[in-house]
Design goal:
Blueprint (H helix, E strand, L loop, with lengths): L2 H6 L9 H17 L16 H16 L7 H15 L1 H15 L5 H11 L2 H15 L7 H13 L4 H11 L5 H5 L8 H14 L10 H25 L3
Helix pairs in contact: 3-5, 3-6, 3-7, 4-5, 7-8, 7-9, 11-12
């Protein structure tokens, strides 16, 4: 089963309508034809995000970020290819890249697409989208300014809180006191506040929160969870906390 067969087999719902459906109708229709009998289609609404909805949303936003600075560089394409090879194997990666190239040829109404995602996708899945997009944008060594601006816009359109966006951004672009910002606290926080913040962030970013998207995405979520633990361990060491 190819890339779309694997992810769309988890269900398609909200991406069949709105701006995403209009932009990708032909591609999605072709994928359904190829995987006939395997693709349950239903409306996600406010229910747990379907894997197919997440997969299509990720591809569209990947294309938007890749186009942010007006050019698509080889390192970004290589990252996307490696990501899909790791998650789905070489055949699926090849198919995903072809679909991505088709999306890159289109004008992407980023705000409308993000509003569609925001209104239909659960919050933990939206956080995972942002984390994966940062992974992409830093594939060439650093995040370009146009990419930074677009990522912040996408996060806002997706309804991600400022603190949660700052937390993820500091995992990739460390500011002063980055470890504290990952935990969404100030360096002046008490030891008890540090412990409370860690427990909160560990729950928010636990890989199990996106387990409904499949083992592939759950493995990617492990990275975000490790960053939270690393931040906490660093702060503990600085403060000699038990």
């Amino acid at each position: 089963m190819g890339f779309f067969g694997k992810w769309l087999g988890g269900g398609l719902g909200f991406v069949m309508g709105g701006p995403m459906g209009g932009m990708l109708g032909f591609l999605i229709g072709s994928a359904i034809d190829e995987t006939a009998g395997e693709v349950p289609v239903y409306t996600s609404g406010q229910h747990v995000t379907a894997r197919g909805d997440f997969g299509v949303s990720l591809l569209v936003l990947i294309a938007a970020v890749m186009k942010a600075d007006g050019k698509v560089v080889k390192s970004e394409l290589d990252y996307v290819k490696q990501f899909f090879v790791r998650q789905f194997g070489p055949d699926s990666a090849k198919q995903a890249l072809q679909i991505l190239k088709d999306i890159l040829k289109q004008d992407i109404p980023v705000m409308d697409v993000c509003y569609q995602i925001r209104d239909n996708m659960d919050y933990s899945s939206r956080l995972q989208l942002i984390h994966l997009l940062f992974n992409l944008s830093i594939a060439d060594g650093y995040v370009q300014e146009p990419e930074k601006r677009l990522l912040e816009q996408i996060s806002g359109y997706l309804g991600i809180s400022g603190n949660d966006f700052s937390s993820i951004r500091n995992m990739f672009i460390p500011d002063t006191d980055a470890f504290y910002k990952i935990l969404e606290i100030d360096s002046t926080a008490t030891d008890e506040d540090v412990k409370k913040a860690y427990r909160k962030m560990a729950m928010l970013y636990h890989p199990d929160r996106v387990s409904h998207l499949g083992e592939e995405i759950k493995k990617s979520a492990d990275e975000k969870f490790r960053k939270v633990n690393e931040a906490y361990e660093k702060i503990k060491k600085e403060r000699n906390l038990a």
